[in-house]
Request: fold
Amino acid sequence: MPNSTPGLLDDTAARDYSRKLRLFNAFAEPELRQAMASLGLEPGMRVLDAGCGTGEALEWLALEVGAQGLVVGLDLASAHVAAARAAVPAGTAVLQADLSKPPLAAASFDLIWTVNTVNHLRDPLAGVKLLGNLLRAGGRIALGQSSLLPDMVFAWDSRLERLTNEAVRRYYRDRYRVDERELAAVRSIVGLLRRAQLREVGVRTLVIERVTPLRPADEAYLLEAIFRGTWGERLRPYLSSEDYEALSHLCDPMDHRFALQRPDFHFLQTFTLAVGRI
Reply:
């Protein structure tokens, strides 16, 4: 098992986000694949997914570069690596390693795809520079990050939504000993690529927009990863009893007020992809 300094949110080789990663990838697959298609990958290219999680993007990348290409996944967490290895196409390598100490030769790849990963590093700039060393001349880093803009969940109740988001930030401050400035630094991904001396930095933001009726994958992600996994009981100390009760009703599938069954449910989340060339 790789040795490493825990990440910003106490990420270690034993940390397991498998369920949440699968839910997010199924939920955001249309937009993630749209972002991937915009990169103009060609057959025969060599691609690294740095922070590959449970491996869904490895299959999509393999389709882009074809049988002549090579796709490699790298992740720190043991559970993620096991899940990815069980799911990826034949010929796709998945390595367990610390991104700060990648067991890969310099100048090996044409593209590095890394999504919702760099924000977990204590030193994102050092991480991007290390990834840059793995690129061939002219190679690119595609750095993806979800939710650079605040998500909209309760379109009809902006007050409760604001208080819930504030409660999440307070929870993270207390649980992981990080303040809002550290968590917000991820918004500067364009600046991060430029500070790492990448060239031709460009960026595009896709809107992930969902309304009722929801696909099963959408409802599963919102219910399990957001309503239960990010909110839930952990927010009780940070909300008034009245606001916590209102939130609980909206998050309960057995309640007639369940948000995901409201005819006016409208969800917005962004996915931003910044790309730079070495």
In short: Residues 18-277 form a domain with the Rossmann fold fold (CATH 3.40.50.150).
